[in-house]
Amino acid sequence: MSTIKNTRVRPVDEELWERRTDEILHVAATLFAERGFAGTDTQELADRVNIGKGTLYRYFPSKRELFLAAADRAMGRLREYLDAAIGTRDDPLEQIVAAIEAFLGFFDQHPEFAELLIQERALFRDRKKPTYIEHREKNLERWQQLYRSLIDAGRVRSMPVQRITSVISDLVYGTMFTNHVAGRQRSLREQADDIVEIVFYGILSDSERIYWERKR
User: Which of 91, 92, 114, 128 could potentially form a cystine with 180 if both were Cys, beta carbons 3.0 to 4.6 Å apart?
Assistant: First the structure.
């Protein structure tokens, strides 16, 4: 469900409305990523979609609403992509591995979406929560429930599940932005495997882990 408040009045043909909305947002994401919010001309956007500028504003009354809807659509597509990636995995640990690789792969295939998230944070600081955070919080409970089940089964050591989801989310999110800003230096599989290995196994040897736990 969109996190952008819908202030528009829809026509009778809902299918046409949804299809054209998606087309507008697809082109908008590309233009905003290429030229920035200020440099994007809504007339050019309307021309690319082959509609009048007045029609464009029937769908999105302001440039700001258009931008935020494009960012919201990107996060909705990310959710669909992740669901598809983990949908065929029965084992919860395998679902985690698949989700990490899929997350990195999604933004690798759609760098324009990463650019939207960067621009949103820079341009719309008046928003209480960026689009990414809104979507992450909406999807958090299902992952926390997954970790609770793993803890109950004795497969993950007992700790607050909020701590687990926060650390993994930050690792994956940071890797994605590093790839976008600095360029990806290794394959997505290698990056995902590194995150999984460090999270699952840690960096300490068994003997050092015992010593460190006693020291703390």
Answer: 114
